[in-house]
């Protein structure tokens, strides 16, 4: 049954008309993917053909095994800083092993159904590191745009900026001209011929200009990396040792996390563009895992879902994963037939393509909007962004998540409100109100508290202190109204236990309206049985009736607080009748219904 749902379910009702739509969209996306694949590979510090291999193999496998009907997989800009750092630090062979290990991690994430956990990563963190990556990509292409020479590449941002500044005098006018021609073409093409991919036309026009007018004045793919081979990549299993696994497990985990986030974000975008056709996040991770395990065996770099190419796929009418398979086949045919011609593409032509990718992925409008809000999210966003640019993506995500958790915990802790209350006789349902508690209107023997908000480790201590600091006069009964406590963790239970056990030495603790989750926690720890089932009430009115029976009647004599309706009789020494008057019954009923 599962096999059917994976391979045939997504092609239900498939027809020749569907195939024609997939063929068109696959052809368009395939053409777009070729220059991007090479550009991402070059920016990652490896030969351009490795980007082509990734586009072919990962693109086909992700479409076959992934969880989205429209996902286009391949190398993406988000990986550039991570992959470049691995290549600089450990070398290309280690990148292949790290990619293979990342595939295994993604595969197990999908098998153990961890796809849904990605949605818990705060948006300011994803926007922060995405914008940071965009800055790194953009700045990383300035040298090629200007045709600078003598540039030494570094893993960190600031040393790379220094290299540009120190070598700015080596600007190549012909490279700048080539880059400007490509940039202008990429920007204008969608406005003039919307259906034609701008990056491809930009590369073609600028390459023709450079080849015809100044063929020896600019660096090309061929002069820098050698001629691109038109042969298919050979199978090669990376060397695996325990030492190398230890060395690369960190980078592999970063690749897996980033790949998982990017692929599922892309799948969500695809869902939004195709209403009613939702992706399977766990199956998508499995597909990503398989693709990233196989691709390095043929020299390819890590891949993930490509948001822009996936959107283009949908806009061009794709109806099934077959369009993604066709896109990979198109790239394969181009590699076989036209690979040698790609060697003459100037590096200055590739720079604007990547700069536009960086500009589009920067999420600049959302970034500015979040900053203007000046909230905790703004702080998380800025910290993640700056750490991505100036330190590393790994540190940025770790700190961003930790900071988000800390700030969220602080905000949640501030939501817990503990306030002393009494019934308001002027309200038709005699609702409880904090305004009723004054120095001359407060029962000396019964203390009632509203507890509202989550009772967890961030708020538990303040909760205990707010109760204990205000009942130092030792009332007879403590009534906690906990109907608005949706959640309680073991830390919250511990502090509640402290209150109950301390107060029970001289009085009685009653709890009303408690939700199922906090009750289940109390039952598991034994606090429920310690408190006594008879001390839990569904309504506050029932709890007050119980509390009135526990009063020391001698202390009620002459009391002028009159906190409850019964206080007038109690103050005069009149015994409350077991059979309540009609008026008293009405009051009790209102209390029960209102609370």
Brief overview, please?
By secondary structure, the chain is mainly α. It has 27 helices and 9 strands.
Description of the structure:
By secondary structure, this protein is mainly alpha-helical. Helices cover 61% and strands 6% of the residues. The chain is built from 27 helices and nine strands. The protein has helices spanning 2-7, 16-43, 48-65, 80-90, 92-111, 123-140, 142-146, 157-166, 173-192, 198-213, 221-225, 242-273, 281-294, 307-315, 322-342, 347-361, 364-373, 376-390, 393-413, 460-468, 490-503, 516-525, 527-531, 540-549, 553-556, 567-571, 582-594; strands spanning 73-74, 304-305, 417-420, 422-423, 432-433, 446-452, 477-484, 508-512, 536-537. It has a five-stranded mixed sheet, sandwiched between helices. Helix 20 (460-468) links the parallel strand 6 and strand 7 (477-484). Helix 6 (123-140) crosses helix 17 (364-373). It is elongated and about 110 Å long. The two termini are 51 Å apart. Residues 1-7 have low confidence and may be disordered.
């Amino acid at each position: 049954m599962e096999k059917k749902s994976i391979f045939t379910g997504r092609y239900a009702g498939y027809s020749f008309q569907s195939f024609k739509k997939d063929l068109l969209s696959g052809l368009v996306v395939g053409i777009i993917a070729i220059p991007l694949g090479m550009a991402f590979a070059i920016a990652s510090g490896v030969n351009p053909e490795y980007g082509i291999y990734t586009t072919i193999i990962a693109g086909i496998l992700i479409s076959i095994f992934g969880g989205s009907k429209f996902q286009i997989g391949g190398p993406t800009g988000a990986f550039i800083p991570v992959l470049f750092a691995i290549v600089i630090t450990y070398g290309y062979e280690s990148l292949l092993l790290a990619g293979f290990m990342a595939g295994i991690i993604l595969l197990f994430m999908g098998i153990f159904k961890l796809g849904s956990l990605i949605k818990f990563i705060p948006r300011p963190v994803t926007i922060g590191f995405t914008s940071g990556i965009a800055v790194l990509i953009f700045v990383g292409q300035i040298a090629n745009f200007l045709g600078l020479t003598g540039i030494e590449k570094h893993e960190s941002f600031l040393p790379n900026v220094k290299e540009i500044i120190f070598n700015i005098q080596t600007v190549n006018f012909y490279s700048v001209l080539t880059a400007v021609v490509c940039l202008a073409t990429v920007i204008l093409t969608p406005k003039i011929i919307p259906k034609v991919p701008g990056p491809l036309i930009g590369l073609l026009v600028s390459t023709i200009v450079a080849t015809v007018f100044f063929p020896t004045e600019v660096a090309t793919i061929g002069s820098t990396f050698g001629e691109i081979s038109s042969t298919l990549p050979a199978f090669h299993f990376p060397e695996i040792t325990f030492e190398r696994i230890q060395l690369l497990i960190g980078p592999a985990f970063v690749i897996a996390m980033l790949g998982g986030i990017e692929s599922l974000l892309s799948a969500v975008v695809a869902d939004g563009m195709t209403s009613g056709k939702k992706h399977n996040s766990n199956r998508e991770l499995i597909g990503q895992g398989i693709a990233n395990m196989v691709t390095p065996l043929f020299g390819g770099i890590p891949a993930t879902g490509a948001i822009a190419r996936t959107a283009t796929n949908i806009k061009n009418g794709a109806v099934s994963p077959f369009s993604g398979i066709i896109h990979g086949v198109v790239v394969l045919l181009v590699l076989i037939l036209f690979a040698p011609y790609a060697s003459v593409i100037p590096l200055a032509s590739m720079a604007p393509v990547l700069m536009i990718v960086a500009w589009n992925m920067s999420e600049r409008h959302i970034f500015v909007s979040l900053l203007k809000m000046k909230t905790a999210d703004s702080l998380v966003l800025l910290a993640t962004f700056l750490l991505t640019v100036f330190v590393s993506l790994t540190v940025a995500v770790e700190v961003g998540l930790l900071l988000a958790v800390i700030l969220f915990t602080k905000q949640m802790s501030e939501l817990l409100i503990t306030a002393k209350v009494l019934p308001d006789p002027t309200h038709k349902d005699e609702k409880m109100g904090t305004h009723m508690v004054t120095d001359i209107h407060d029962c000396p023997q019964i203390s009632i508290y509203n507890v509202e908000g989550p009772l967890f480790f961030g708020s538990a201590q303040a909760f205990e202190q707010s109760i204990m600091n205000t009942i130092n006069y030792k009332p007879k009964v403590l009534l906690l109204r906990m109907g608005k406590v949706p959640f309680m963790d073991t830390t919250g239970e511990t502090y509640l236990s402290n209150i109950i056990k301390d107060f029970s030495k001289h009085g009685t603790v009653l709890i009303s309206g408690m939700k199922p989750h906090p009750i289940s926690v109390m039952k598991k720890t034994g606090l429920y049985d310690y408190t006594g089932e008879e001390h839990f009430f569904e309504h506050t009115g029932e709890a007050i009736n119980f509390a009135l029976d526990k009063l020391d009647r001698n202390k009620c004599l002459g009391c002028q607080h009159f906190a409850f309706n019964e206080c007038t009789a109690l103050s005069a020494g009149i015994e409350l009748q077991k059979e309540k008057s009609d008026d008293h019954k009405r009051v009790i009923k209102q209390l029960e219904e209102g609370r």
